[in-house]
Structures are given as C-alpha cells and as structure tokens.
Amino acid sequence: SPRLQESRDLILQLAKHFPVVIIVIDALDECNPATRRQFLHAMESILRACSSFVKIFISSRNDQDIVYKLQDYPNLELSSDRNRGDFAKFVKSETSSIFNSGAMLQYSTSKEELRQRIIRGYGTEQRRGRFRWATLQLQAVGTKPP
C-alpha cells in the first residue's frame, strides 16, 4: 500500500542518522491478516535495505501466519503461565489496598469473602491473558466517587 511504502521509506531515511534502530510493534495479531502480510514484508525489506543495526520487536499472539513468517528470526515466547504468580500477587495487593482504603464496602462485614471472590475472578481473567483488563478494572473499582 502507498502509506506502508511511505512509512518504510521514512524509517529508512531516519535510520541513516542513527547507528542502531529499534522498532517496536505491539499486537500485530490485531491487524488485518492481508495488511499484516504486507507489513511484515515491509519490515523484512527494512532489515535488508538499512545500513544501520536494526532490531524489530513484535508482540503478538501465535497466529499461524505470523508464526510462519517469523520462524526464521530469533523469537522469545512469553507465556501467561510464567507470570501467574506475579499476577496473583498484584491482584491480592490491589484488592487489599482498595478494601483497606475504604474505597469499597467500608462498613461491610463481608469484605474478606468478597475480596476472595474478586481474587478468584481475576485469576480467570489472567488465564485468558487479560492482565491489562484486570488492572484497569481494579483501578476503576478502587476509585472513590467524588
């Protein structure tokens, strides 16, 4: 596409001024499959054409076309299983903080029961890979109304 070509050319022009270029692409899997095929081709052409040292970091779910296209490049796979402990600690800490601050159920006698239910519920979201969603929800719950 013309815009993709323009972007590629701009990156190549900018790269002439830097010895190292790092390009970060987040959530490539959310891009239209036809567009991402063109995009990955453009990234490969940058790697071939650029005189600078280029690193491209792409985060994505393991969609088959992406995995296939990137199989010849160094890959680091991150799994939600690896951060399960961190996620659980975060949810427990945030939930305790919300309840202790009085932002939620200040005078309730069922705080602990509800806190445990929230922690279990967010554990389900973590298994689905929704750490950011859970974080935003906890922040919203912890915000006191004006």
Automatic annotation (TrEMBL):
This is Nephrocystin 3-like N-terminal domain-containing protein. InterPro entries: NPHP3-like_N (IPR056884). PANTHER family: AMELOGENIN (PTHR10039), NACHT DOMAIN-CONTAINING PROTEIN (PTHR10039:SF14). It comes from Parathielavia appendiculata. Keywords: Repeat. Residues 11-61 form the Nephrocystin 3-like N-terminal domain. The keyword Repeat applies. Pfam families: NPHP3_N. It comes from the Eukaryota.
